[in-house]
Amino acid sequence: MGYDFHITRASEWSESESLPIRLDEWKEYVASDPEFRMDNFAEIKTPQGETIRFDSEGLAVWTAYSERGEDSNRAWFDYSGGRIVVKNADDETLEKMKEIAEFFGAKVLGDDGEEY
User: Fold this and answer.
1) Tens of pLDDT along 39-87?
2) What are the counts of helices (DSSP H) followed by strands (DSSP E) for the chain?
3) How large is the greatest C-alpha to C-alpha distance in the chain, in angstroms?
4) Contact assessment for residue 76 and residue 67, using Cβ atoms and an 8 Å cutoff
5) Smallest Cα–Cα separation from 94: which of 113, 116, 111, 71?
6) CB 5 within 8 A of CB 96
7) For residue range 75-91, what is the model confidence (pLDDT) as tens digits?
8) Using an 8 Å Cβ cutoff, are 25 and 104 in contact?
C-alpha cells in the first residue's frame, strides 16, 4: 500500500476524469521537461532478488530526483484516470508536483483530499 498524491484539475481527485489532464498533454509535458523520461513501466528488485514490474502507458520517471540510483528510490509519475499519481511523495517530489500542477492549471491533492 502507500499514500497517493494526485495532480488534478478536478476539485476532488476521484473526479479527475470529469476535468482530465489528457494523456497526450502529459506526454508532451514529459517530452518538454529534460528532468523526465517516459518509460511506460516501473521495475524494482526485491531483497530476495525477484523483479517486480508495473506497466502503464504514461508512466514517467523524474530523473533529477536526488534520491535516484540503481539500488535506491525512483520518483515515478503515473498517468491514471485523467490525473498524474505519485505514491509516497516526499517534500522534494511534492515541490516538483506543484510545479507540474501549475503548468497544467491544476493542483496537488492527497488521498484524503488535502491540498498541497
Assistant:
1) 999 988 889 999 999 999 999 999 999 875 554 567 999 999 999 999 9
2) 2, 8
3) 43
4) no
5) 116
6) no
7) 999 999 999 999 999 99
8) yes
Q: Which three cell numbers stand for residue 105?
A: 492549471
Indicate the pairing of strand 60-62 with strand 41-45: unpaired
Q: What is the Cα–Cα distance from 29 to 48, expressed in whole angstroms?
A: 36
Amino acid, res. 10: A
Q: Which amino acid is at 91?
A: D
Q: How many residues does the chain have?
A: 116
| Count of other CB atoms within 10 angstroms of residue 79 | 24
- φ, ψ at 107 (rounded to 5°): -145, 170
d(CA 9, CA 76) in angstroms, rounded, equals: 20
Running DSSP on this structure, what letter comes out for residue 93? H
Model pTM score: 0.90
The pLDDT assigned to 67 comes to 72
Which long-range CB contacts under 8 A does 51-56 form with residues at least 24 apart?
56/80
Secondary structure letter of residue 115 according to DSSP: B
